[in-house]
Amino acid sequence: MLAEHRRALRAVRAASLRALDLHREILERERQRLRRERQQLRQAATYAARAHRRALEEAQTTAWEFRDAWEQAKREGQKLLRLYDRYFKGRAA
């Protein structure tokens, strides 16, 4: 009877170790899958952030160019008004 119990216990222990190994293997696969997903999400977020940053920089550059063009147009408009004032004052006199 003692030998039978030992065999049964060995069989239970072997089955438990196989189940534990299988469990560890499944957990490791799941961890690897989650790592890959997390890496893909990080890459997508990084790409989106860089694209957003580039778009923002382009918009800022365009805004500065428009501001500069606006300032130049105002200066030229003021020069033109002064020129018209001189021209009309010269004709009035």
Task: Please give a structural write-up.
With 93 residues, the protein is mainly alpha-helical. The chain is 98% helix and 0% strand. The protein is built from 1 helix and no strands. The protein has one helix at 2-92. It is rod-shaped and about 135 Å long. The protein starts with a helix and ends with a helix. 0% of the residues are buried.
Share of residues in strands? under 5%
Count the beta strands: 0
Q: What is the overall number of helices?
A: 1
Could you give the order of the helices and strands? H
- The gross shape turns out to be rod-shaped
Mean pLDDT: 94
Q: Low-confidence parts, pLDDT < 50 over ≥5 residues?
A: none
Structural class: mainly alpha
The separation of the N and C termini measures: 135 Å
Major sheet attributes: none
Rounded to the nearest angstrom, the radius of gyration is 40 Å
- Helical amount among residues, as a percent range? over 70%
Provide the fold topology:
Blueprint: H1 2-92
What attributes characterize this protein structure?
single chain, mainly alpha, rod-shaped, 93 residues
Write a brief structural summary:
The chain is mostly helical and 93 residues long. It contains one helix and no strands. The protein is rod-shaped and about 135 Å long.
